[in-house]
Fold this protein.
Amino acid sequence: MALILSIETSVEGCSVALHVDGKLLSNVELFAERSAAEVLTTAIGQNLQIAGKSFDDLDAITICKGPGSYTGLRIGVSTAKGLCFAKDLPLVSVNSLDVMIAEIQPFYPDSSLVPMLDARRMEVYTKVVKGKSEEMGTSAVIIEDESFKESLEKGETIFFGPGAAKCKEVFTHKNAVFPEKDISPKASSMGQLALEKFEAGDFENVAEFEPFYLKEFMGTKPTKNKKVVAS
């Protein structure tokens, strides 16, 4: 039985959850400005208390590595690494966009899924997945009329997440779908992703691990059709 603590700070606020073998045991969410810095450790303690568990019961820590908020990711990763060092626990990391996909994919199993996190102006952090196939890796994309044309021409394409709102007026293709449900990275949706990596022994080097910022894109001037794909 694997008891894993998940931490998510890639968007405004923070969320923390406990999963047993991928099933949600307890969950605390707070979406407010600067909440990650102010209440993350409190939220972790509340989760353990609600579940009747202690740090000594944990088998691993999972962190949402990014992309996302620079400050939030830095706080979350620092906290996760500190816990791993203190309790000698393995560190698992998951992509913020994959966490969003895990939440919505059961409702759209045959559609192309395009999670979006807001970057700046008309830019988003995104990827494209259909079923188990990754059609475009994690990228920073400037939203234009021709963006995601290939996916849209193939069939129903679901755009969701905090960055999707800016695309509604741009993507008028009949296959473009914008669900009303608010989807963002949440610790409660990290359970199965974390379990799969835990069982595979896919752990990070705690000392060397850093958040996934997509800095290459953030530090450059936007140009037409610019897209940076993560390695």
